[in-house]
Write a sequence for this structure.
């Protein structure tokens, strides 16, 4: 039932239905591969604990059961769990399947929206962020973690070099990831107040690079690019993994955290340029005289 | 008691939802376990109490079904 995107629509880089199947397939054994998601949830919990506000109604997208890590100190009341794949929503409490590219919420429903390692694979990030913002009540908080920057750059390079060496050309196999600066700008473009983007770079050493591929599949993060590459041959895969190990066998995961607030009247705002009532020059002169 | 056991949708959740395609209202068909969007001519399934708000998973409505709404 997919129709071609209207002109002006963002390019279709990710196959969302395929991404949903990858997430669904990984759901049964996810607990064995959730080390990154756990770290991200712990980080998000830290952030929520440091905000002195309560969030009576929260939406948590993509946490795959790790909502249980949210502590009472976070001040979170009711939690609606959501995901792209129903299989990741087992457990008690209200839950819902939707695509962050087309959210199904009436405006201003949540005090808090958390999105866990999911937004790196949407085609229209600014659109998805605008929809999250619209679902927030005024002064509601948005916190998202997504893969960015140099995530899997060594694996990407190894696959590229191996495929070029053996086939004389290569197709993309690791998704493109946005850098923290453009992600921060996107957050601002989507209309969030006080937008902040920061990065946590995690390096994981793999003695056996096959385990990296297993981890990616286990997280549900196997390639979901819309443009399906030619299958890897055994020889290319072996060469790529050998190159990956020769380069140190280190996989990098750059987790970008985005936080922003739905605009509200009484929020602190930066002053407009030229609106100052005292001259900086006078203030400096006054200091010097002392 | 989990929602998955009863198959019922949390009424508070229903209040929050609109059709992701048209942003129009949804009607809860308890018998069929569907959320019906007249504007999009789609019925979104509810599986084990979990609404599946994906247009590609929804059932297109026939003309006579639409007329009854």
């Amino acid at each position: 039932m997919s129709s071609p995107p209207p002109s002006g629509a963002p390019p279709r880089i990710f196959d969302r239905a395929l991404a949903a199947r990858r997430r669904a397939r990984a759901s049964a054994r996810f607990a064995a591969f959730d080390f990154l998601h756990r770290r991200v949830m712990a980080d998000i919990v830290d952030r929520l604990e440091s905000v002195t506000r309560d969030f009576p109604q929260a939406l948590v997208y993509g946490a795959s059961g790790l909502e249980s890590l949210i502590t009472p100190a976070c001040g979170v009341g009711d939690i609606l769990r959501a995901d792209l794949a129903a299989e990741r929503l087992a457990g008690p409490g209200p839950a819902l399947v939707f695509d962050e590219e087309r959210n199904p919420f009436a405006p201003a429903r949540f005090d808090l929206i958390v999105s866990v390692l999911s937004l790196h694979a949407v085609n229209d990030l600014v659109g998805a962020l605008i929809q999250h913002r619209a679902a927030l009540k005024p002064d509601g908080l948005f916190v998202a973690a997504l893969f960015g920057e140099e995530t899997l750059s060594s694996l990407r390079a190894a696959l590229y070099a191996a495929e070029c060496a053996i086939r004389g050309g290569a197709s993309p196999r690791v998704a493109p990831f946005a850098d923290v600066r453009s992600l921060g700008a996107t957050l601002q473009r989507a209309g969030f107040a006080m937008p902040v983007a920061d990065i946590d770079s995690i390096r994981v050493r793999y003695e056996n690079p096959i385990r990296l591929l297993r981890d990616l599949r286990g997280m549900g993060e196997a390639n979901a690019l819309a443009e399906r590459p030619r299958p890897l041959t055994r020889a290319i895969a072996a060469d790529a993994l050998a190159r990956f190990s020769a380069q140190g066998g280190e996989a990098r995961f750059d987790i970008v955290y985005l936080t922003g607030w739905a605009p509200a009247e009484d929020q602190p705002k930066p002053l407009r340029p030229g609106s100052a009532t005292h001259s900086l020059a006078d203030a400096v002169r006054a200091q010097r005289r002392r | 008691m989990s929602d998955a056991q009863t198959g019922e949708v949390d009424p508070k959740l229903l209040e929050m939802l609109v059709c992701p395609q048209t942003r129009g209202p949804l009607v809860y068909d308890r018998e069929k376990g569907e959320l019906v969007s007249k504007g999009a001519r789609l019925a979104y399934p509810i599986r084990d109490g979990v609404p599946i708000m994906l247009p590609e998973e929804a059932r297109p409505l026939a003309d006579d079904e639409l007329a009854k709404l």
In short: The beta strands of chain B are 27-29, 34-37, 42-47, 50-51, 59-60. The radius of gyration of chain B is 12 Å. The first strand of chain B starts at residue 27 and ends at 29.
